[in-house]
Amino acid sequence: MKIFHIADTHLGFSAYNKLDPESSLNQREVDLYNAFTQFIDIAIEQKPDLILHSGDFFDSVRPTNRAISIAMDQLLRLSKAAIPIVIIAGNHSTPRLRETGSVFRLFEHLENVYPVYKNKYECLAFPHLNLDVHAVPHCTNAENLQNALESLKPNTSVKYNIAMLHAAVVGVNIFKSSEFNEQEVKSGYLKTGFNYIALGHYHEFVKVEENAYYSGSIERLNFLEAVHKDKGYVELEFGNDSESGPEDHEIFYPQPVFRGLPTRPMIDLPAIDCISIDRYEISNEILDRLNSVDPVNKIIRLKVLNLPVDIYKTLDFNQFRKLTSEALHFEIKYQVTKDSESVQAPSIKFELLGTEFKGFMENEAVEDLDKDRLYKLGLEFLIGEKEGMN
Ligand SMILES: [Mn+2]
Questions:
Q1: How many angstroms separate the alpha carbon of residue 129 from the centre of ligand 1?
Q2: d(Cα 332, Cα 220) in Å, to the nearest integer?
Q3: pLDDT per residue as tens digits for the range 7-51
Q4: Is the dihedral angle over the CA atoms 164, 171, 181, 12 positive or is it negative?
Q5: How far is the CA of 67 from the centre of ligand 1 (A)?
Q6: Percentage with pLDDT > 70 across the chain
Q7: Stretch 309-327: mean pLDDT, rounded?
Q8: 89 CA to middle of ligand 1, Å?
Q9: Which of the four, 93, 140, 212, 286, has the lowest number of CB atoms within 10 Å?
Q10: What rounded mean pLDDT belongs to the chain?
């Protein structure tokens, strides 16, 4: 028996300005569709007995029509190939209000597609595999989550028990991603009685317990993920000795094999700390860094720290841009300093929103934009105040 575990496909995610030349859609949006479609291609070819999707199927609670239609197309392919897939809701796909409804309801109409999204634990039986899937979706409140976790118990009358969970597991190691509505689960709930626990939420393939793994996301969604080696899915092999029951031997933990999917390169160049170099060499240092990579179709960032404001004003931004014009996305993050003190030092006390924003704008380096106008527009958006207009 072969099982695939995937998670955090974030369909509908988009970023940066470049468009895909073929479809004229946002290139990153297309990248994620492509990665997901490639996974489905592999599944159709290899015919696993079951696919587990551990949440954040879509990037948002209200996916676009396009994201929904691509998802439906791909799930239909699995459905027609009679490959069952269980999908649990993650924090990116759980509406906070019941009235919002869930897009996962649509999936209930597809044969072999089992969405779990109702704020509670559900057990799905696959008798032909002698297997139960115990699924805990993202829950909208702590009480529902607690109830769901307490229902999470292996069924001793089947041979295999698999649990699914979309959460930040907190134990010896902490697998959080610092999102607003992530739910934390103590590692004690990852019980040893399950043959496998398919986790979602943390975007890197990682072992959490002997029987519990995050499969990670299928693309790098921000620069924190630039260091992640590979993106893909997990393949599990359960052997074919379906005659003996679970009480006959010790619990079996399959050895997961990580399978990479092709992703777009994301490079966070080594940061330049201007404190450690001659101030008149800063521009050359930046150029050296930019020349050290082939930028074509890549996502690249460079951080320049402790940059004196007078040097910042002399930098040739056009030259930097030219060097990286073939990148899918390129950004330099400048941390500018005045009078030898960093202006981005964190302040502990928070002022009124307008005051905070003013301070932020004063210290933020703005390239090629009318800073004054940007400040006024920002203020208008943030607090509806039109400064300087009577
Ligand atoms: Mn996610």
A1: 29
A2: 18
A3: 999 999 999 999 999 999 999 999 999 999 999 999 999 999 999
A4: negative
A5: 16
A6: 89
A7: 94
A8: 11
A9: 140
A10: 89
Ligand 1 center to 159 CA (angstroms): 31
Please report, in angstroms and rounded to a whole number, the separation of the first and last CA atoms in the chain. Answer: 72
Check whether 172 has a pLDDT greater than 80. Answer: no
In the chain, the domains with their CATH numbers are: 2-260 (3.60.21.10), 266-383 (no CATH)
Identity of the residue numbered 44? I
Is residue 382 over pLDDT 90? no
| Distance between Cα 216 and ligand 1 center (Å) | 8
CA of 329 to the centre of ligand 1 (A): 22
* CA–CA distances in Å: residue 236 to residues 94, 141, 272, 338: 28, 32, 43, 56
Q: What is the pTM assigned to this prediction?
A: 0.83
Query: Could you tell me if 200 and 7 are in contact, meaning their C-beta atoms sit under 8 angstroms apart?
Result: yes
Alpha-carbon torsion (302, 307, 309, 312), positive or negative: negative
The pLDDT confidence band at residue 183, using thresholds 50, 70 and 90, is confident
Contacts of 287 (CB under 8 A, 6+ apart): 319, 320, 323
What is the CA(376)–ligand 1 centre distance, in A? Answer: 34
Rounded to the nearest angstrom, the distance between the alpha carbon of 228 and the centre of ligand 1 is 14
Query: 248 C-alpha vs ligand 1 centroid, how far in Å?
Result: 38
For ligand 1, the distance from its centroid to the CA atom of residue 7, given in whole angstroms, is 8
Q: What is the 3-state secondary structure (H, E, C) of 343-377?
A: CCCCCCCCCCHHHHHHHHHHHCCCCCCCHHHHHHH
d(CA 383, CA 390): 16
pLDDT of residue 348: 53
Distance (Å) from CA 8 to ligand 1 centroid:
5
